[in-house]
Amino acid sequence: MPQTEAELEQKLxxxxxxxxxxxxxxxxxxxxLKANLKTQLEKHNxxxxxxxxxxxxxxxxxxxxxxxxxKRLRDKMELSRDDGTxxxxxxxxxxxxxxxxxxxxxxxxxxxxxxxxxxxxxLINGLPLVQIELKRRGLELKEAFNQINRYQRHSYGADNxxxxxxxxxxxxxxxxxxxxxxxxxxxxxxxxxxxxxENNLITQLEDFADSFLEKCHVSKMxxxxxxxxxxxxxxxxxxxxxxxxxxxxxxxxxxxxKNGYIWxxxxxxxxxxxxxxAQILTQIPKVHKVLFVVDRADLDYxxxxxxxxxxxxxxxxxxxxxxxxxxxxxxxPLIVTTIQKLNRAIKSQKHEAxxxxxxxxxxxxxxDECHRSQFGETHKNIVKFFTQAQMFGFxxxxxxxxxxxxxxxxxxxxxxxxxxxLHKYVITNAIADENxxxxxxxxxxxxxxxxxxxxxxxxxxxxxxxxxxRISLIxxxxxxxxxxxxxxxxFSAMLCASSVDxxxxxxxxxxxxxxxxxxxxRVITIFTPGYNEEDQDANGLIGEPDFNISADTSNxxxxxxxxxxxxxxxxxxxxxxxxxxxxxxxxxxxKDIAKRMKDRxxxxxxxxxxxxxxxxxxxxxxxxxxxxxxxxxxxxxLKYHGLxxxxxxxxxxxxxxxxxxxxxxxxxxxxxxxxxxxLFSDTNASEEIFIEPYEYYTEKFNNGVQELRAIATIxxxxxKLISEEDQxxxxxxxxxxxxxxxxxxxxxxFSFSDLNLDEQTFEDYKSKYLDIYxxxxxxxxxxxxxxxxxxxxxxxLIRRDEINVTYILxxxxxxxxxxxxxxxxxxxxxxxxxxxxxIGKEVQLRSKRDLLEKFIEERLPTLEPEEKVETxxxxxxxxERVEAIQQLCIEENLKVEAVNQMISDYKFSGKEPLRETVxxxxxxxxxxxxxxxxxARVVSKLLDIISKFDDSLGELGExx
Length: 960
Fold this sequence. Notes:
Layout: H1 5-19, E1 23-24, H2 30-45, H3 51-61, H4 66-74, E2 76-80, E3 86-90, E4 102-106, E5 109-111, E6 115-117, E7 120-124, E8 127-134, H5 141-154, E9 168-172, E10 177-181, E11 194-195, E12 201-202, H6 205-211, H7 215-224, E13 226-229, E14 234-237, H8 240-255, E15 260-264, H9 270-281, E16 289-294, H10 301-310, H11 321-329, E17 334-338, H12 339-347, H13 352-355, E18 363-367, H14 375-385, E19 390-395, E20 406-407, E21 410-411, H15 414-418, E22 421-425, H16 427-432, E23 439-443, H17 462-465, H18 468-485, E24 492-497, H19 500-515, E25 523-525, H20 557-574, H21 583-599, E26 613-616, E27 629-635, H22 640-647, E28 661-665, H23 670-680, H24 686-689, H25 694-711, H26 724-744, H27 759-778, H28 787-790, H29 805-820, H30 825-841, H31 849-859, H32 869-892, H33 896-909, H34 915-920, H35 931-949
Parallel strand pairs: 1-4, 8-9, 15-19, 15-22, 16-17, 16-18, 18-19, 23-28, 24-26, 24-27, 25-26, 27-28
Antiparallel strand pairs: 2-3, 4-7, 5-6, 7-8, 9-10, 11-12, 13-14, 20-21
Helix pairs in contact: 1-6, 8-9, 11-12, 12-14, 18-19, 22-23, 25-26, 26-27, 29-30, 30-31, 32-35
């Protein structure tokens, strides 16, 4: 018989107490938790607290959100004692992290909005800092994740909010175990397995407990390896490979004066790792300063902001070298600078005197993206100037003898510059851990033979590749397939061209076809005007971004004029005022593009600000991380680390919809791709790095259809699934099909005729799937302890943004015209039934179904011939919205103008109203004990109104 959840829980507690030394404690409710907290704080601080003192501690702890509390946990409290003295109370010993009090308890019950009971809680000094949620073997791990999310909504804030001090969550079904930081914004894909130093995953719960939950280790993770991300006000915990890399650097600095480098694949979070390393190194007494060195192109707003939060004014984003020299002479232990400025500071004679006293100091240099070609020159200058320098490099694609390019210093590999590789985490590790996505590499049909093999092209024939007719055919292909690749433009794409002239041809071709009405894609570009030399990227080195656009020469004037023209297009599209009048203005344009692309990842991004395709030659092909970018169009001879770097722009993890990074190559790069994979992972790694061919997914889909039919032979059979167990089986079987269809549809050759389920039947099953989902949403929350409710329906996979209210109105307009043209009653009823069927099948319209049906049944038949459907519907919709808001105000005794303001603020910022804002909207101030429930209820109803009346309207929702 399989192990039950209770047995799994008991085994874990036995391991924690008898094997790992946790003190078992029985705490059944919030009162027990508080009493135990008092005892443990007394023990930890060697103090006796009276009741009034402890009450003031509870008041101190019960303030702010999870992020505020994480800060409070790490600070001492200035406690005014009853005898008039002051005592500095410590909640957590972060410096000597093993010197804390450790307990384990289980099944604590909290009464918040609803009553919840938690599985296993680890207490440090009486505070619940690690929460473990278990599911029996065989159940999906995501169910435990969803359950914790529900606890966060329903009860973690109750009784002084002590459970909002949880720093790390652990979820396990015995066989698979993951951990993650307490951050409500993250999704299941942002949970991690623990691993050993060689990247072997530790998934079994007992092994995980021994290595991760060991008292000193879990304390170290909380005290040293959780990052309080100030920009987003969230907690982030390091992944195992990040932990081992930082530990290796610290050991190297403490024990030796040798250099070293970290090889962590592109997209694995090297900047976070290097940030944490820099942060910890500043606390080592023998280190005079830490210099974090980046390329100017990579010093974005967010990185600068994070470093400045940690060490005020440590980042100077100007080109002023004197500012860096002053920082070097000052007291700040951490300096963030660009490689360009560092070079000038140590080479310039005018700064020599100011820098002289630093020559013999122990300065640690951390280089981000150290595969860049210019590090050879910088390395030479640093070694020459700083006699005690210790250097560490981070790279996703090291330079080996095979891919090293010659320069004036000869062929210099990463090992030559940085000596030893201290930790390695390659792309195959990251894919296996689900920390980055696999790639789908597709070759343009024009270079494919009928048997699927690729044509060998004249690689050095510029005339062949730059032929405008060839580029026009490529642009036609992109126009036809871009929506398929980017899931209806939910993601952006990049196109990399071989030269500035080729890029200009691409941009002009896109623009001309747009004028002809062939597409409405938003295409933007940036490049440095210059000589149109032979293709310089064939050696695999992607050139460094060059922002120097000094006065024109005759050779540059054409591309300079074109750049000005393209920036003018950009200004018109986004209402900006950029130019390329000088290097500073050009850099501002570059940063605006970077911000526009990255901001798409943010919650409150406005769709009218998006860019669909970014055309580049070299810029943005390395070190540029954007989750909402999923496709790279390649018309450039990429090779070795240049190829891996460019491909890796597409494979950041984001939700279920983004299933792979799409690479569409308009050149035969098959051999180059295989060589790059072999160099940076393993000769036989292609199967692990690239997704399977189209036929693999259609076969899996068709096998899945058989499994689905075994549960429900036809869609209507889903109605006969009475038990929750049977409904869950159906949901999981159909969800498997939508996942497989999501991948299959990204292939150009996708057709429903290849599947053993026609499109109509698929849609009918989808309706039943959504019916089950709707039932879970309509249940009162207190009844939601159900199997179906724990399953993730992954609705993003079946949401179609093009099917919105505007689309339905177009169908209704046609229906009205058919009525005028004397269509038969049968035709009218069939068309109406079809429209109602669409409303039932689309995720984003189901919340509006009752209103749309009301309009169709009650208002549409009474339309006068001269009335426009759109105008009448707009009036109907506005009136219904007003009535819904009035109903909310009556039910919750709220001020109408305050509710309208909260809705307006939410639509602008994407942020839910604060508790104070909601309570101020009440006509009568609620009682203290009722406030939490009223706040949660009002916010829920507000979001329902916004979802019903304001989301997925299409052009109807756009202001004139």
